[in-house]
Amino acid sequence: MKWYQRVGRYPEIWALTAVALFTRLWQIGRPRAIVFDEVHFRNFVSHYLDGQYFFDIHPPLVKLLLAGFAGLFGLTPEQVITGEDGALLRIIPALAGAALVPLVYVILRQFGLGRRIAALGGLLVLLDNSLLVESRFVLMDSFLLLFGLSMLSCYLMLRKTVGRQRWVWLIATAVCAGALVSTKWSGLAMVAVLVIAWLVEAVMHRVRWWHLVIEGMVGIGIVILVYVGSFAIHFTLLHHAGDGDAFMSTRFQSTLVGNANYTETSDTSFGAKFIELNKEMYTSQDSLMNVQHPYASEWHTWPLLTRPIYYWQSDIGEDGFQSHIYLLGNPIVWWGSAFSVIVAGLLSIFLPEVLCKRRRLILFLLLGYAANLLPFAFIDRPMFLYHYFFSLLFALFITCVLISLLLGWVGQRYGKQQVIRIYWGIVAIVLVTFLYFVPLSYGWPLALDDMQRYMWLPTWR
After folding, report:
1. Region for 273 from its dihedrals, namely left if φ exceeds 0, alpha if ψ lies in -120 to 50, beta otherwise
2. What is the reported pTM?
3. Distance from C-alpha of 461 to C-alpha of 385, rounded to nearest angstrom
């Protein structure tokens, strides 16, 4: 089969990708304002361009990628920080968010599910309003999700290969893992899920211990290399005094040109700076315990979508209309997937025979869901709905597996036509709900009285 025949073999993935790009990039310049945490990340990116030292509680990789994109197009620090960049900086997060849609399709196919179910999974991601909103601004979570799912996809390839190909996919998995933890430390939960799966499979297949040790050392080495490398670039670009100096020691400040403690002969090593900054990142995250935020929410409320985040609102116009942008998920997607997790858990315990050959997959997905959610129960600082995104994706994978089992049973009992009706009924309900909430995703002007009809729960306001 020729390459162009292979490319055209799965038209659904190309259709999903095209629509994902359209929804993420359409009107990307609206609003012409700084939205939610864009104020922080634009500030950080601008400092990579002017060299002034800043401090952030998260690792630097994504901010470096954004700065590289800004530098490629010749943006000035002022254009970046004020948002006068013609929405250029929003394009990269939007592309990352769009890439999630075909990637979910690919992963579901790697799980052994059919094309119809894989397309449904892509649609559930495509038609979730919260994932849409998060990808359209200068924020980090679209990258975090992309790196995490890329790591999962590479691992699924790794477990099916041997010889040289296995080493290729091991390196690819480790690079993605390195990028993940170099974006946010919360990505460690995803890494832990795959490490557990890798160890379990090694035991099941009786892999020789020395081979396991070598693979582990190579994987860990690559992750460390990516993580430390991102900080090496970070320190190289930030060589002048800035608003982050106060977080660092006098010895660290001695390396920053323009700081009162600067000395040309400073002997502070990269290792010392790296360790100090990571310690300060941890300390600063821990110090947020008593901080309050009006849109913070408890981890156990996220599956129920009880507290969305108000990202932006415009002034009231002369016509009495006002625009709003909410980080609010598609309720059908969120509530339906949460219900699927409960059903999958109960079936795994009490009726495992119903899951048949999918039981191991369901157990893996339940592990992924729990590992990305339960650690937040032990974090005593403001947390937000977007911290649930990884668990949401695992919940959607579980939903697709259960729907696949359901449609298989319906097909055997009632026939193909009933399967088609149920499938397109699910798609229609999700699509209609997505379109209903689209005005809050894109910030379309609404009459003041119209806003209330979108507030399905009193806690949404």
Report:
1. alpha
2. 0.96
3. 15
